[in-house]
Amino acid sequence: MFSGLAQLMTEAENIAGVIQKALPNIKPGSLRFWGSWFGKPYDNRHQMVGCDFNGDMLEVRFDESELLKVWEPRRATVNEKSFRIVEAKRVRWVWFYYGRPKLPASLYFQEFVREDTQITVETNIDWYTPTYASDPSFPAVEIL
User: Fold this and answer.
1) 1 domain-assigned
2) Is the pLDDT reported for residue 7 higher than 90?
3) 116 falls within a domain
4) pLDDT tens digits for 19-63?
5) Which is it for the CA torsion 63, 42, 37, 105, positive or negative?
6) What is the CA radius of gyration of the chain?
7) Which domain holds residue 126?
8) What tens digit of pLDDT does each residue of 105-117 get?
């Protein structure tokens, strides 16, 4: 029986705790995933409103009903001047098409998966063909 041992916290749980304590003062701004901008550089302003964790997956909620999921996050910086997660296994950004009703038909995602030195991207964007300049030397996710 292991009744005397303390349960180990995951890094996602640690980061979620830091985010929860820092809200609502965490820096808002434009998102970048392994160097690939969501939208045009500095063209968007995303504000965190909450977060949770599920095992070693961090879930961050934003003010326009967006959701950021980060699997196995490592080396995070969270404060009023910076939000950055340097390492992760996978990052998924989910949002409703801006300006349209928040219905399942207008729900989109971009998912970035790191395997060694390679970043693969999957998306359901259907109004254009996105190109990604993902680079594993950049942080997994950051707000600039």
Assistant:
1) no
2) no
3) yes
4) 999 999 999 999 999 999 998 899 899 999 999 999 999 999 999
5) positive
6) 16
7) 11-143
8) 999 999 999 999 9
Which amino acid would we find at residue 19?
I
Q: Which two tokens stand for residue 61?
A: 């909620």
Residue with tokens 């500095």: 42
DSSP per residue over the chain, as a string?
--TTSPPPPPHHHHHHHHHHHHTT-SPPB-EEETTEESSSTT---B-EEEEEEETTEEEEEETTS-EEEEES-EEEEESSS-EEEEE-SEEEEEEEPTTS---GGGEEEEEEEEETTEEEEEE---SS-------TTS-SEEE-
5 part of a folded domain: no
* The two structure tokens encoding residue 31: 């998102």
- What domain count does the chain have? 1
